[in-house]
Amino acid sequence: MQILIVEDEEKIVNFLRRGLLEERYTVDIARDGEEALYKFEINEYDFILLDLMIPKVSGIAVCKKIRKTNTSIPILMLTAKDAVEDKIIGLDAGADDYMTKPFSFSELTARIRALLRRGRQADPVVLSLDTLTLDPATKTAKRNGKNIVLTAREYELLEYFMRNQKVVLTKTQILEHVWDYNYEGLSNVVETYVKYLRKKLRTNPKDKELIHTRRGSGYIFTDE
Fold this sequence. Notes:
Order of helices and strands: EHEHEHEHEHEEEEHHHEE
Radius of gyration: 18 Å
Number of helices: 8
Distance between the termini: 26 Å
Number of strands: 11
Strand order of the largest sheet: 2-1-3-4-5
């Protein structure tokens, strides 16, 4: 499941990213309303966490614009405003739920799960490429019908690739989505995990290579 967090407070961004990654969600960040609308237009998200008070375009305006093109994606508003009138404005703009800051992370994740269950009209679409399939519902991957055993981080990396097929992804983008934004571990962590993943995705000597390096740019996930 891919979640878009629209929030401009860095501490809250880092807190939410770490927690949601630990829950095995894929996370994307927008720090203002314009960036949120742009990312929503070019990516496919399963859920949106939206702050009301963000720069450039307000959270209310962002919510209304998203609802004009997508009536089903769950939107949960996070804000410091706790007046009943503000909640009514947020819900009337198209939000499915409303939480005020500070908030309990366990309650937040419970509400996310509830909204995802409520909005799910069918099982999540199984992602596929060539003979590889990935089922977000069970968090399992198979190639040629064989199960692929993945660590949590390998799964997150594979899901990010499969949701962005035929798109060149930079190492910075991959770090931001799969690892923490302020990750300070090994500098070659992306290369290391791509190597792990390439090896695991070859369940048959005749399998096509799916992760391709674009020198100076990053990686592209394609069977072409």
